[in-house]
Design goal:
About 30% of the residues lie in helices and about 10% in strands. It has ten helices and nine strands. Strand 1, helix 1 and strand 2 form a beta-alpha-beta unit. Helix 5 packs across helix 6 and helix 8 runs parallel beside helix 9. The longest helix has 20 residues.
């Protein structure tokens, strides 16, 4: 039985080896891109900086890769009591995920200085002790445009964030989409992957090169105004692709150094996104209909998987907004029982997802 890996990226929210690992969806095109040679099955991604090795029947075939990335942002951290409450909740969510064999990916920049101030390196604990994934949520792209940064200044700020991660090895980033060349900047500072791809990322293209249907991006003034995921087609989200520069990132470049990994939207807004496509939903209430919609999207991904390619699914959650752990446990339990245990899905951290993509030949 062929299976697929579903990458669930929460907003609570890659480089290649030899050859061309996968041609990816080519969002600007019509056929989604086809790989030149047949893909080899892989058993698991190596255990590197976040997440445990795959286990279970899906790891032996060609699974739908599921990862959950959580953007750590929007929570007041002006005093130790606020910081302690925040990291307590992070640990509780991590514990809950491990109960069901899931290892989340946490993306942060806001926790760096408070971790120093209050003597609790939660990010290093998540990566080294808990084996969760850790990346950077830079929250930089739109701010770079507002501040009028040059390309060199933009890249320098990105490098400073990456360097300041308190001993944590980070390989991917989100929150960098800009009218500047965010792809090249990410490559220059050593990032292998970028996730959290939204419409605002199209600002890096010349207006004449905007994909059909996205002409409105030319007048978009900030990420909040064009925050829908890109590409919009759910089938095209199933495969990563490679990019070299911001000027043509929507088309797969087999020589690209940075993997772009699309997401299926922020978890608490899944029902709202389904009801109002194109509405740039960012602030929603986590409820039962979001859980139900998440399962529908998972079923769609499994039904539309391509057995010749690596398949992924990523959800996002911005944790500024805590979500009801009872509903989260319901989702995790159903995924384990109905998908993981049946070999249809394998959980991945983002570093593992990047490794899987690199090895897919």
């Amino acid at each position: 039985m062929r299976t697929f890996v579903f990458s669930l990226s929460f907003l609570f929210a890659a480089a290649v080896g030899c050859g061309d690992p996968q041609q990816g969806p080519n969002p600007a095109g019509s056929d989604g891109g086809q790989q030149d040679a047949a893909l080899n099955d892989i058993t698991s991604a190596p255990e590197t900086d976040g997440g445990v090795l795959d286990s279970g029947p899906a790891a032996k075939d060609s699974p739908l890769h599921l990862a959950l990335t959580i953007h750590l942002e929007g929570w007041g951290l002006s005093n130790e009591a606020q910081f302690d409450q925040y990291v307590k909740k992070i640990r509780e969510y991590s514990d809950l995920s491990h109960k069901y064999g899931a290892y989340f990916t946490w993306e942060a920049a806001n926790l760096i200085q408070p971790s120093v101030d209050y003597g609790d390196n939660i990010l290093l604990e998540l990566q080294s002790e808990r084996k969760d994934g850790v990346g950077v949520h830079a929250d930089l792209g739109g701010n770079a445009d507002k501040k009028g940064l040059s390309q060199a200044e933009f890249q320098a700020e990105m490098q400073d964030q990456k360097t300041a991660m308190l001993g944590v090895k980070v390989r991917h980033v989100s929150g960098i989409c800009s009218s500047l060349d965010w792809v090249d900047a990410a490559a220059q500072v050593g990032y292998e992957g970028v996730t959290g791809i939204v419409e605002y990322c199209l600002k890096a293209l010349d207006e004449g090169n905007l994909p059909a249907g996205y002409e409105h991006i030319a007048t978009c003034t900030g990420p909040a105004d064009c925050h829908d995921t890109y590409p919009s087609d759910a089938k095209q989200k199933l495969q990563p692709w490679l990019a070299s520069t911001g000027s043509d990132w929507v088309t797969h470049d087999p020589t690209g150094k940075v993997a772009l990994l699309s997401t299926n939207g922020t978890l608490p807004c899944l029902a709202e996104i389904a009801a109002n496509p194109g509405g740039s939903q960012t602030k929603c209430t986590w409820a039962q209909d979001d859980v139900d919609q998440g399962i529908k999207l998972l079923d769609f991904a499994i039904e539309n998987r391509d057995p010749k390619l690596m398949n992924q699914m990523i959800f996002v959650w911005s944790f500024g907004q805590a979500i009801d752990p009872v509903l989260l446990e319901q989702l995790l339990s159903k995924i384990k029982t109905d998908y993981v245990d049946k070999g249809l899905v394998v959980w991945k951290t983002m570093p593992q997802l990047i490794d899987t993509y690199r090895q897919w030949k």
